[in-house]
Specification:
By secondary structure, the protein is α/β, with parallel strands linked by helices. The chain contains seven helices and twelve strands. The chain has helices at about 1-10, 20-25, 65-75, 100, 125-135, 170-175, 190-195; strands spanning about 30-35, 45-50, 80-85, 110-115, 140, 145-150, 155-160, 180-185, 200-205, 230-235, 240, 260-265. The strands form two sheets. A six-stranded mixed sheet has the order 1-12-2-3-4-5. The radius of gyration is 17 Å and the shape is globular. The N and C termini lie far apart (about 50 Å).
Length: about 270
Amino acid sequence: MDRLISRFLYPHLSAIWHPYAWLIERRFRVAETTLSPAGWPPALPSLRVLLLSDIHCGIFLKPETLAEVVKFLMQLEPDLVVVTGDIVTGHSREVRPFLDALTPLSRAPRGAWFCFGNHDYFGGDPEEIRKQLQAIGIITLKNESVKIFHGTGSFVLGGIDDLILGKPDWARMMSELGTPHLLLSHNPDHFYSAAGHGVSLVLSGHTHGGQIRLPHGPPIIRQSRFCLDEGAYSFHSSLLVVTRGLGSILLPWRWGADPEAVMIEVVPAKW
């Protein structure tokens, strides 16, 4: 139902209907956390990572609303910006009117990076999303890794393809630079595979925190089969952060799971 509505109904309404923008203006928040993942390069200085996900350009959202959110977030001076998938709702072309609003993300000193989510495959060509984002300085990692220099050291940043509609390829992602220290994965259910490969920190979205949650209760509809709904998790020596994300699907509404971004300060462990 999500795919049919997002792909074939909402694109015809997106030019005239933006009922979700007011909710973002009133309820958007930034969560903050400090993490010391095992296996994180000890020579690195503190790294401020801004985690965005599930922006869902298109129906519900106005470019000017997103522009205000991005402007505010960049005033927090992140070192690195990551967008973990679902940048559109139903079609790859939906990102175009929002490119100006997204452009400031690329000004982070260590760059802005993106991985594909399931909605990025709903309609059109997802490679068009890659090209459009690259034109404004946001680089897509699809089963790929890069080395990023920070202070006196470096770390490996990887992006794995979407678990549901993509083609995740762990071997390809790790073929040149080895296991990433930091992994972008739209779907948090990649976490246990990532932990098995020795990834230090995984950043995800996808779940919307449930989008609709009863007070003190679980999501009405769960998007993670492991109940990785929102927040920070650990398994063996790996850590996971799941953001509720910014946008909305199916309904222009959130309840009990307000839109958010997460600012993560990553510091080496002290042993």
